[in-house]
Design brief:
The complex is a heterodimer. By secondary structure, chain A is α/β, with parallel strands linked by helices. Chain A contains 22 helices and 13 strands. Chain A has helices spanning 2-32, 35-42, 57-73, 86-99, 111-118, 127-131, 134-137, 142-145, 171-176, 185-197, 211-225, 228-234, 244-258, 275-281, 293-301, 343-355, 360-367, 379-384, 388-400, 408-411, 414-428, 434-442; strands at 49-53, 79-83, 105-108, 149-150, 153-154, 157-159, 163-170, 201-204, 285-291, 309-312, 327-330, 333-336, 404-406. The longest helix of chain A is centred in the N-terminal third of the chain and has 31 residues, at 2-32. Chain A is globular and about 65 Å long. Residues 1-44 of chain A have low confidence and may be disordered. In chain B, helix 3 (62-92) runs parallel beside helix 7 (155-181). In chain B, a hairpin with a 7-residue loop joins strand 1 (38-39) and strand 2. Chain B is mostly helical. Classes of the chains: A alpha/beta, B mainly alpha.
């Protein structure tokens, strides 16, 4: 008896600890069975809505303004906005969608990741609503709507800004060493050497978060081989990662690391937490490849840097097939509504998306922080904005692009996209060889 | 008659604990075993793939890699924490003035959450703006750009140091209370036999603290096996997968790569490893025999 008691005690103490951990993994399903009950309970005379977004700083403030404006006009269906860091948000959203607990309005980037939710019927189809109100439907840039359209049905509407990726540079540092923004990849490489020889970090990279590595990858692939390599991967063509263009892009990235283009320790510098931006606006680094939201984060952190802030499109690769006007990045942020929301919540959410999101006041607020939304006919408003220079630059960048390459990690199915980010991170610090990278990624094509 | 009633009462008293254990420990473990045979992303329809996740985990080498990293971290944590805790604990157990004050100061890190500690240390260790690099440079060591958390060969050791900083206070507390229990008569006897402070430490204090050492060892090893939060904040398993211990790997497989099946495989491995570890410790340390070290006192 005594011996048994001790064995039980030992296994109880260890197992309860294990069980807690394992328990984390299973919350998703245990909650899902209750989802319908809990939403039913919350339906009362007053409909409560939540909104999830990854905006921060000045962008978060603009969102809050919009929400409070909506709330004062709709006291019976108020929205509570919650803001998250982007990487944890992706995980939170995935679990919440599976459990039927997602916010009544959730932000996303469209593409394959949204499609993962659309296929099992977790996202509200907005097509008939949009078709019923042509003014609403025609407000947005058609090229951007591609990201939320699956089989001709629309599952989200743009908000916030378009997010093409471009290089930001420190004008003062470029002037000091008599440099002009590089037009070609080779010019960029020689500028890197010049900054390095003067003890300045050529390019700031938030390698801890992995996705900043992807910006180099997707632009290099596009500049070297056009859009074909991506299209083959997206179509799931067997062995399509084993493409000479992709191999060349990886080699070029490796070369940047070898040449010391990035700060020492880029693999522990974050982008979600603003460390890469800090290197750049503090004058330690000369260049920064980032999405257009980078402008807003610099405004939030150090607006005195804005006069020194320059920008140029990703350089072209000599002899490459890609069109130098093509851009990569996130076409836009989008709001979607989950089918787990109650009919009353869905109705209120559509009211918010149709009549408040990107209304004239919201657009004005966005323009004042350097955010250009993906809507038609705002050139005249753009020109009057305080941040007109950068806004015109990237509005035209996005509008004139013959091809807008959506970030591979949001465009591809979620698992493949996440693996790509992780593997690029490993590749950059030499933990994966080119061939390991390729065979890893190829294994996702057969799934 | 009396005996059987006692038995009935015992079972009733144990019922809440057994229920709790079944619902929160046994059930999730069984469910995890079931999940480990699924190809499921948490949202779409799950398909049964049998042992595919298991073979894949070992063929790809990821699970073995994480297991080795976990063992490395366990060893590092024990080596870093135990000797320092022992010395500190015995020191603050002394009767000299103000030693309790030290105890209070040492205790402070234990009051912070792992996330706060993680964020603070990642600022301190930042290669561009960090305190450590600036201090080292000021005294002429290094060029001030050592990449503590971004260097694949350093990261695990640095993480173990931060964990040590967090948990040494707790272990010291155990040693302090252990050392205070040692009867003064033992030291007097040792002194009469001509033992100096060093000898009485090794021949009186250390043997008397045997079970405290076992307790801290069990706590450090089992605690490290499932350690997650600080690593998540400080390195997120990186650079690359240099600090991707089992718990981290489980989380990433399940919630980042959206492969609940593969994550469950690691969860099951983790549970099995924990069980094995506790059985081994109990068997080899004689902890369950509870022998006395103070016969005749």
């Amino acid at each position: 008896m005594k011996k048994v008691g001790k064995a039980v005690f030992a296994s109880v103490s260890v197992c309860s600890m294990m069980g807690l951990l394992v328990g984390c993994g299973s919350t998703a399903t245990t909650v899902s069975s209750n989802a319908s009950n809990s939403t039913a309970v919350s339906t009362s005379a007053k409909t409560q809505l939540t909104l999830w977004s990854v905006d921060s700083g000045v962008a978060e403030k603009a969102d809050q303004k919009l929400v409070s404006e909506y709330n004062s006009a709709n006291p019976n269906a108020p929205i509570t906005a919650e803001f998250f860091e982007s990487t944890p948000y992706l995980q939170k959203l995935q679990i919440a969608m599976g459990a039927g607990q997602a916010a009544s309005i959730f932000m996303n980037w469209g593409g394959g990741r949204l499609e993962t939710f659309v296929t099992p019927g977790k996202v509200v189809n907005l097509t008939s609503q949009l078709n019923g109100d042509p003014a609403w439907k025609d407000k947005f840039l058609p090229s951007v709507m591609k990201s939320v359209t699956f089989n001709g049905q629309v599952y989200g509407v743009p908000f916030g800004n378009m997010q093409p990726v471009n290089f930001f540079y420190n004008k003062a540092l470029f002037k000091k060493y008599n440099l002009t923004p590089p037009q070609t990849w080779n010019q960029l490489l020689s500028d890197i050497q010049i900054f390095k020889s003067h003890g300045i970090i050529p390019i700031s990279l938030g390698g801890k978060d992995n996705w900043p590595d992807l910006m180099y990858f997707e632009y290099l692939v596009e500049r070297i081989g056009g859009r074909q390599p991506y299209e083959e991967v997206a179509a799931g063509k067997p062995n399509s990662w084993d493409n000479p263009v992709i191999l060349k892009a990886l080699q070029d990235m490796k070369l940047l690391v070898k040449d010391g283009a990035f700060e020492p320790g880029f693999s522990s510098v974050g982008s979600n937490d603003g460390s890469d931006a800090a290197l750049f606006y503090s004058g330690k680094a000369a260049m920064w490849l980032m999405g257009s939201w980078g402008y807003g984060s610099i405004m939030t952190s150090d607006s005195s840097f804005i006069p020194k802030l320059g920008y140029f499109a990703f350089p072209q690769v000599t002899g490459g097939k890609g069109n130098p006007t093509d851009v990569a990045g996130n076409p836009s942020d989008f709001y979607s509504i989950p089918t787990s929301a109650t009919p009353a919540q869905q109705k209120a959410a559509i009211n918010f998306l149709k009549n408040y999101n990107l209304d004239s006041k919201n657009v004005q607020n966005l323009l004042s922080i350097g955010y250009v939304p993906a809507i038609q006919g705002i050139e005249s408003q753009l020109k009057q904005s305080n941040e007109a220079n950068y806004e015109m630059f990237y509005y035209n960048l996005a509008k004139n692009a013959s091809y807008f390459q959506q970030s591979w990690d949001t465009a591809l199915p979620a698992a493949e996209g996440n693996q790509l980010d992780t593997d690029l991170g490993k590749f950059m610090i030499g933990q994966l060889s080119t061939s390991q990278f390729v065979s890893n990624m190829d294994s996702y094509l057969n799934k | 008659m009396l005996g059987s009633r006692m038995n009935w009462q015992r079972w009733t008293m144990m019922l809440p604990a057994i229920l709790f254990f079944a619902v929160f420990a046994l059930l999730p473990m069984i469910v995890a075993v079931y999940y480990s045979g699924l190809n499921w992303d948490g949202v779409s329809k799950a398909t049964w793939v049998g042992l595919y996740n298991w073979t894949h985990a070992f063929v790809s080498g990821q699970a073995v890699h994480s297991l080795l990293l976990t063992l490395e971290l366990m060893a590092l944590c024990w080596i870093l924490q135990n000797p320092i805790s022992l010395v500190l604990g015995v020191f603050i157990a002394g009767k000299q003035r103000h030693r309790v004050v030290y105890g209070v100061i040492y205790f402070v890190p234990l009051l912070f959450s792992a996330v706060a500690i993680g964020i603070t240390w990642s600022y301190i260790l930042d290669p561009e703006f960090g305190l450590i690099d600036s201090l080292l440079q000021a005294v002429g060591i290094g060029n001030g750009t050592e990449n503590w958390l971004g260097n694949p060969s350093l990261a695990m050791f640095v993480v173990a140091c931060i964990i040590a900083w967090q948990f040494i206070p707790f272990n010291s507390l155990l040693y302090q209370s252990g050392a205070k229990q040692i009867p003064a008569s033992l030291y007097e006897a040792a002194m009469l036999d001509g033992a100096g402070p060093l000898r009485s430490f090794f021949h009186v204090t250390l043997p008397q603290l045997k079970y405290t050492i076992i307790t801290t060892t069990v706590l450090i090893l089992t605690g490290t096996l499932t350690y997650f939060d600080l690593i998540y904040v400080v390195t997120n398993g990186g650079p690359g997968d240099s600090t991707e211990v089992l718990a981290m790997d489980m989380y990433k497989e399940a919630f980042t790569n959206l492969n609940i099946g593969a994550g469950s495989v690691i969860a099951v491995i983790l549970a099995a490893a924990g069980l094995l570890l506790s059985i081994l410790i109990l068997k080899f340390t004689g902890f369950n025999r509870m022998e006395s070290q103070m016969e005749g006192l």
